[in-house]
Amino acid sequence: MPFRIALSGLNAASTDLEVTGNNIANSATNGFKESRAEFADVYANAIQDTSSNAAGQGVRVARVAQQFAQGTIDFTSNNLDLAISGQGFFVLESTDGTQAYTRAGAYSVDRDGFVINHANDRLQVYPAVTGVGSTTTFNTGVLQDLQLPTTPSAPNASTTLTAAINVNSSQSAPTAAFNPANPATYNSSTSTTVYDSLGNAHTTTIYYRKTAANTWDQYLYIDGNNVPPAGQPVGTPFALGFDSAGTLTTIDGVATTTATTAAYNPGSGAANITLNLDLAGTTQYGSAFAVNNLAQDGFTSGRLAGVDIDTEGVVFARYTNGQSSALGKVALAKFNNQQGLRQVGDTNWVESFSSGTPQLGEAGTSSFGQIQSGALEASNVDIAAQLVNLITAQRNFQANAEVISTADAVTQTVINIR
Predict the structure, then answer these.
(1) What is the pTM of this model?
(2) Domain residue spans in the chain?
């Protein structure tokens, strides 16, 4: 019987060595969680000893328990590297169509723009939904693969031009007829760029010409062509009227600070450009001409320039035209019993009966942790502690081997009795 007891000890010590060795081997594996061998003593059920002094039958491995303590966050230079600070797992769509869960966040992009890990598993996100007023929300009832755009973004035609200009009230009114080629015929000018429906850029110049006290003419030119107020012939300016405090009060004799241009044909097959002018910030003060704000809402097409991911997991695509758009929100999962998750390799886990079903959520909500972009979670293995465990397991193995040696000597002695 001592042989079997010692043999169980050898098996237990061997398992402890395997677990410790695996922990040490994965001490540099991102997202790896160390395991711990847990043991239980063995007593034969057939023994009915009311004195409770029965000898045990050895030891068995009760379980190999995973330890999901937080690993150190190491920063990198890749924005697609993700780390979770707190609870939660990234959700992956495996190549076989099943879902897997991981804490390893080293992601890259395949040739089709999908964000994947080293095993080609695709990162799952909640899709972005554009609502009223271009507000973006996320459909948390659906998961989809995160895919970066591989084609240029669509252009947006300019429709609104906002100008907050100060014209100098102390300047004199020019006497010669207005001529954009002759600076003596106007007081000041400024320029910006607007875009047509195809994303072509067009230079827009605004000229200011004083006509009398508190009245100015504003001429708007696109690509050197005059664009008059809506419904007016070419060459007609926008008549601006100011009060004695220098505030813009009227445009073309109407008490308003907004106006609309006539349609301008930019050519090249693009749609006509019609601009809504917002001049609410325009003033007439006794100071130098100043452009306080000059903005428009159009932009040309652009290619993907980079990706940003915030702490809530929202993935933004940045384009070369200065625009950005939300592509989705990284989904996280948690389990009632995460130690019940089944390891499948590649630093992935899958659900099991013991773990329970996944509970999906968003970073920074409920008990989910936050997401750090440009960082990776290191293995939570403590090398110093594992080396101590290695020595302990080795001593246990040697001690059990000594029990076998001693039992063998006793058995040999019994056999030699004559």
Answers:
(1) 0.82
(2) 2-69+380-415, 74-149+329-377, 160-296
